[in-house]
């Protein structure tokens, strides 16, 4: 008999859409996939070189649970030089992707029925991760006027005696919004006063276009004490399939996370770790080139979307997504339960463009598209979206 807790878990919308797109492509359909959340670049050459060298040197045995020392040292150097946060090597735990790093942290911090505060819109897996560890996701309502960035008053409305963690994504998936230092300082102040940990998912922090990026843990010593910084190489170094993430936290919590990881997976692939080492140590220029390309694509997407009637969007300052407001189309889409699901299904069926329904992120009046694809796909895909919206009566 399948565990009862699985009945409360919602399958991943993004994985489901990706599977459907793959099936359609296998049938020969000309699909423009604007749903994908992975870079379209290849792994950097110097990262590949380190991985190949590790294979040739037979670095395929068990290693430390918390990760290869050279990689953790490189992560410490990266956090110091780029994020202005000082960590010792024993405060870093390398995991099998940022998802795994978050889950390890939740297991290490939460007791049954503890509450995790999650601002809307949220990345699709956050609430399901919380439910899988026996805790309760509590959703925080945010405002479009503030680009859906959570504010102190929003948090205060949701705090209860069971509240233990605020889970925040910066830059945001799905909106691309980026928090300023002042905004983060205000959030930290609320969390300190209310004994909340902060899990800061910074997987997109290198893909930031407008202002200097600020890590929450860099704000103050007290902020660092309550913050678990989550990051990885899937987005910034285009290594999603190598499954490499990490957490940076207090020594006490890092030890707990290592204990959890040691029993679940031992440690991530050593070869992936050496590739990550190569990416961090050698390929900063390659990573910067990727970011510049994303920025050009962002500008292209925004210029095209601005000419489509009856939609609006959150202006993305980071990541590689646009969160598009389709609420003005409610009267034109025949839907029973979900506007965004029906819109995305009709869009895919009628124009062969894949997007992600906003309900996956907790807000049904939106869809998310990605510009982690070629300019040709962006132009053709948005032309098809425009044509589809104009066809609605």
Automatic annotation (TrEMBL):
One of its GO terms (biological process) is amino acid metabolic process. Residues 30-385 form the Aminotransferase class I/classII large domain. Its EC number is 2.6.1.-. Keywords: Aminotransferase, Pyridoxal phosphate, Transferase. SUPFAM superfamilies: PLP-dependent transferases. GO terms for molecular function: pyridoxal phosphate binding; transaminase activity. Pfam families: Aminotran_1_2 (PF00155). Its cofactor is pyridoxal 5'-phosphate. Belongs to the class-I pyridoxal-phosphate-dependent aminotransferase family. This is Aminotransferase. The lineage of its organism: Bacteria, Bacillati, Bacillota, Clostridia, Peptostreptococcales.
């Amino acid at each position: 008999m399948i565990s009862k807790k699985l009945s409360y878990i919602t399958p991943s919308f993004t994985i489901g859409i990706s599977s459907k797109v793959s099936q359609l492509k296998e049938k020969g359909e000309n699909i423009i996939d604007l749903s994908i959340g992975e870079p379209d670049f290849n792994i950097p050459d110097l990262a590949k070189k380190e991985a190949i060298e590790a294979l040739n040197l037979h670095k395929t045995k068990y290693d430390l649970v918390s990760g290869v020392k050279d990689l953790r040292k490189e992560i410490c150097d990266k956090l110091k030089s780029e994020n202005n946060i000082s960590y010792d090597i024993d405060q870093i735990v390398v995991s099998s992707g940022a998802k795994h790093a978050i889950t390890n942290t939740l297991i290490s911090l939460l007791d049954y029925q503890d509450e995790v505060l999650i601002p809307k819109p949220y990345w699709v897996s956050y609430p399901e991760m919380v439910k899988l560890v026996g805790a309760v996701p509590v959703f925080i309502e945010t405002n479009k006027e503030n680009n859906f960035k959570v504010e102190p008053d929003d948090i205060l409305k949701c705090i209860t005696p069971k509240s233990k963690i605020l889970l925040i994504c910066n830059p945001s998936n799905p909106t691309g919004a980026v928090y300023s230092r002042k905004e983060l300082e205000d959030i930290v102040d609320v969390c300190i006063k209310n004994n909340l940990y902060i899990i800061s998912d910074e997987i997109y922090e290198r893909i930031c276009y407008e202002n200097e990026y600020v890590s929450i843990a860099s704000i103050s010593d007290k902020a660092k004490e309550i913050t678990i910084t989550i990051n990885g190489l899937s987005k910034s170094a285009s290594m999603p399939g190598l499954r490499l993430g990490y957490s940076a936290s207090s020594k006490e919590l890092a030890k707990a996370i290592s204990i959890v990881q040691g029993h679940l997976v031992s440690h991530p692939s050593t070869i992936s770790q050496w590739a990550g080492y190569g990416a961090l140590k050698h390929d900063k220029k390659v990573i910067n080139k990727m970011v510049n390309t994303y920025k050009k694509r962002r500008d292209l997407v925004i210029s095209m979307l601005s000419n489509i009637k009856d939609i609006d969007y959150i202006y993305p300052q980071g990541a590689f997504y646009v969160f598009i407001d389709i609420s003005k189309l409610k009267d034109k889409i025949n839907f029973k339960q979900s506007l965004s699901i029906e819109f995305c299904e009709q869009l895919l069926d009628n124009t062969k463009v894949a997007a992600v329904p906003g309900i996956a992120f907790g807000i049904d009046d939106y869809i998310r598209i990605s510009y982690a694809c070629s300019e040709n796909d962006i132009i053709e895909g948005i032309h098809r979206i425009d044509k589809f919206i104009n066809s609605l009566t």
